[in-house]
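Sequence in, structure out. First:
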Amino acid sequence: MAMSFDSYMKDMVKPMREDLTRLGITELLTPEQVEEAIEKSKDGTMLLVVNSVCGCAAGQCRPGVAKALQNDTLPTYTYTVFAGQEKDATAKAREFLAPYPPSSPSIALFKNGELAHFIQRHQIEDRSADMIAGDLINAFNEFCK
């Protein structure tokens, strides 16, 4: 029995998506949704997680985000795009992450529609989930008040 590649990938990444969506993080699936989210963030703060299938997303990024979201001070909005899955939405999101090069996983915090804090893949790979959570909590406490 043959399974289509798209079906296989949807099944494979479902639990990776759910690591974030079960926390209340909203998926952005289209470029238009990304633009709408950025527009909404102009009246507050927004966390944007660029999710991916790699090991550092599973071991450090998503668990770090989950721990950080237990903080008392939080972003107004929380969103995610999935690199390699919703390619157009991810490309649109990356337009707002300049001057940083494409990086997945990565974590961005926006304040009033402007990038205020960014954690790139190389800052995720060799750090623990607790370290990433600490970095995010510091950013939340600084920018989300």
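Second:
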Amino acid sequence: MLLPAKAEVARQLRRYRAWERAMLAAPADLTVRATFENTGYTLCVLMGKRCAREAADAAERYLRITPAAYLREQDERPRTASVSARRGPPRSRRRRFHAGR
């Protein structure tokens, strides 16, 4: 897994926190809200997470520890979906059609 530069993570995390404060101060301002959501999305992409809060937490952990320790920590986390999960109907329900029968 490639990891982003710590300087870029720190910069994006600062931007996210600044826009978070601005959005909490003016929740009805659509421009502030849109910019906050954009910074959250950028942080999600940068950290490989699905939600901005999770991405911000991951960015803070990443900045505190070494890249190798961060990768080990990510590998030890339980995954929600199995990578080897099969798609399609259960095998017992599959019908086999034989030519000539």
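Remark: Residues 6-25 form the longest helix (20 residues).
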